[in-house]
Amino acid sequence: MEAIIGGRTASTMPGLDIAEQKSWQNFLDSALRIYATLNRSLADAHGLALNDVRLLDILDSSDSGSARMGDLAEGLMSLPSRVTRQIHRLEKLNLVTRVASPDDRRGVLATITDDGRAVLAEAMQTYSAGVRNHYLGRLSRSQITATGENCRRISAGLQADGRPAKLGRV
After folding, report:
1. CATH fold of 17-158, please?
2. Which residues does UniProt assign to the signal peptide (predicted)?
3. CA-CA distances (angstroms) from residue 161 to 34, 155, 157?
4. CB 140 within 8 A of CB 148
């Protein structure tokens, strides 16, 4: 016998009805699949992860081509230790450099290199084509607008201090 919540059929997720559970599961499945698909295409074509492209884009989008390590971690929604390892790997590829912050001796700035900008430009072509093919190409214009607005509202609601995240273009 099906349980009823406020006139709606309950799901296997406590507190959610079937329509809510299906909506969440469809969103989560599509988000994870598109992330994995884009990540794989960037790795195959450029040897970069999607998060590497996001990091390089944040640096490239900044006025100085640089960002503090803590700001990068915040922008990438990642742990500072993970960003440090990521920067170290990208340094070995000559895509970024690290220097002490001129404003704060304790701070460290990551800066995109000319090689980093060149690799990013190529990777953005692959990334954009993947977004068009796997995401935008499956939606009508009104669906694109509605999905974008819904995601913006969800993201804004999750930001503790209400500031828009500085995530670059990607």
Report:
1. Arc Repressor Mutant, subunit A (1.10.10)
2. none
3. 28, 12, 10
4. no
Amino acid at 12: T
DSSP β-ladder status, 96-100 and 108-112: antiparallel
Environment class of 105 (CB within 10 Å of its CB; exposed 0-12, middle 13-18, buried 19+): exposed
Phi, psi of 97 (to 5 degrees): -130, 160
DSSP 8-state assignment for residue 93: T
Domain ranges of the chain: 17-158
Cβ–Cβ under 8 Å, residues 42 and 60:
no
Please compute the mean of the pLDDT values over residues 131-155 and round it to a whole number. 95
Residue 65 has which token pair? 């081509």
Which amino acid is it at 105?
A: R
Please report how the helices 18-46 and 114-134 are oriented relative to each other, as an axis angle in degrees rounded to 10. 140
CA-to-CA dists, residue 142 to 30, 145, 147, 148, 149, angstroms: 19, 5, 8, 10, 11
Q: Is 83 exposed, middle or buried (0-12, 13-18, 19+ CB in 10 A)?
A: buried
pLDDT on residue 158:
87
Residue 1's pLDDT is what?
A: 45
